[in-house]
Specification:
about 150 residues, alpha+beta, 5 helices, globular, N-acetyltransferase domain-containing protein, GNAT_dom, Acyl_CoA_acyltransferase, N-acetyltrans/Recomb-assoc
Length: about 150
């Protein structure tokens, strides 16, 4: 497994990883209508090029297969953070997170913040984050519970 920065050629795999992970993993914690709104079938990989290029995006590359990805914004916000459904609970997320945290420290950031799903909350807690508050958010007409979490660096 090699953790590296995002390249434009990764966008299609990342879009599929996002879709499949939500449809297969997050469905344990969210309803079918929430999952369908969060990861619709019409996700375009071109959109992911723009999103991932605007942030510091790390990918876990397993010999050409994207096993996970995570995004750091310059203000310390962790945007998307997903591991492929076939790479859950095998250390991929931890490796990506360690790169993100190292970059945040190199940028002299004092904290990291994320909005973690019900599914991702235990992972971020293991990485040292604490819940600031529970919140309700909306996406494509569906209401979701997630958690604003932070970690002081």
């Amino acid at each position: 497994m090699h953790i590296r920065l995002f390249e434009e050629r990764d966008a299609e795999q990342i879009a599929q990883l996002f879709h499949d992970t939500i449809r297969e993993i997050n469905r344990r914690d969210y309803s079918p209508s929430q999952v369908a709104a969060w990861a619709p079938d019409d996700i375009y990989f071109r959109d992911w090029v723009a999103v991932c290029s605007q942030r510091i995006t790390y990918v876990a590359d397993d010999h050409g297969v994207i096993a996970g990805f995570g995004e750091l914004e310059s203000n310390g916000h962790i945007g998307c953070f997903y591991c492929h459904k076939n790479y859950q609970r095998c250390g991929v997320g931890k490796q990506i997170y360690q790169e993100i945290e190292a970059k945040a420290i190199a940028l002299n950031l004092t904290q990291l913040v994320t909005e973690a799903s019900i599914t991702a909350k235990p992972f971020f807690e293991k990485m040292g984050f604490s819940v600031v508050r529970e919140q309700e958010v909306y996406c494509r007409g569906e209401q979701f519970k997630n958690y604003v979490m932070q970690k002081l660096l």
